[in-house]
Task: structure prediction
Amino acid sequence: MIEAAALAAIAFAGALVFGITGFGAALITIPLATHLVPLKFALALFVLADLAAALAVGFENPRNAVRAEWTRLVPMIVAGTACGVTLLVNLPRAAGMLLLGLFVLGFAIFTLLPRARTRVISAAWAWLAGFAGGVTSTVFGAGGPPYAIYLSQRGLSKEQFRATLGFATLASISLRVLAFLLTGLLLDAEVWLKALAVVPACLFGIWVARKIFRRISRDALMRAVALLLLATGVSLIFRAAL
Result:
């Protein structure tokens, strides 16, 4: 019960970030959860929470989503997911933890670096972003960063960015659920028992995020998240090295 409560608290924190920023839940939930449960168990458990959160956010304002962008991303998300599930099934636990730590640490540093306003990048980068997001979604439970990096450089409005990212994330998570069902990761009864605590906590986090969305600076939140990710990434790398 204590472990379930701790996992529910982690799910709430991840959903709070996701509800405000449109991505990033798994960058909080998976690294923290791996201090309590194995990586593969954490991925299977939190994919259910991620799906609930993505459905709640993705269909808030679907008219704002730019169809041309997410239809470019989805085919390569499919290819990346197929590649990622192969890596996940064959990846040793220590190696998986080390790669997750490096991925989280790298994204945290990227978030903290000052960036000047840049020109709109080519739509061709969608192919790389989609594939990379499919791989990281399956292996690390975090497909959002590649999509967010790409879409943030496409000249979209705030509303278009969040809605389009929500659709891309929803597609990615749905494919991850299917992949985990086919590989048996979601056939563990304990995953579903823990989900009874984790999924409601996630939905509550989304509800709270909606209430505070207009009262908090997204930039300030992302800086705080980046600092947390720095500490989490270092912790995972240290544990993998032991």
Remarks:
- Residues 12 and 202 are 5 Å apart (CA to CA).
- The chain has ten helices and no strands.
